[in-house]
Design brief:
about 140 residues, alpha+beta, 3-stranded antiparallel sheet, 3 helices, 8 strands
Length: about 140
């Protein structure tokens, strides 16, 4: 799957969306529909709410497909974490919060930060990452 990074900015922050790691939980849309609306283009409208509310909603993204940083300097990320937290979700992916290196069987490595969703059901077309297939194949665990 092609790795795309889309950026959406207001005067205070830049929101990044990485669709290749999105598990389509719709938490963003249900939580802040005036900003996140997949039925419109562009689907992220930074003028739909306050910066504070956008930050709160982005932090709820379970896969880490949404992230943000202050202004235009990507090196000044606001939502970095110091600890690594591993959360095994009911009937869903393993969520890793924090900066990790994913080593793949072919020897390549991905540096991930924020939240990384790893497949537990075995059905993802984007292994080792979750693509939401567990909902379609009835995974329980």
């Amino acid at each position: 799957m092609k790795e795309i990074r889309k950026k959406y900015s207001n005067a205070d922050i830049t929101v990044i969306w990485e669709p290749h790691i999105c598990i389509h939980s719709a938490i963003c849309f249900r939580g802040l529909p005036d900003v996140f609306n997949p039925s419109e283009l562009p689907w992220v409208k930074m003028d739909g709410s306050t910066t504070g509310k956008i930050i709160v909603q982005v932090k709820k993204c379970p896969s880490g497909a949404l992230s943000y940083y202050e202004g235009t300097d990507e090196n000044k990320q606001l939502n970095t974490m110091e600890k690594i937290i591993v959360n095994v979700t009911e009937n869903g992916p393993i969520l890793i919060q924090g900066e990790v290196v994913i080593k793949k069987p072919d020897g390549s490595e991905d540096l991930k930060s924020k939240v990384t969703a790893l497949c537990r059901c075995g059905g993802s077309n984007n292994k080792p990452y979750c693509d939401g297939t567990h909902r379609k194949n009835g995974f329980e665990g």
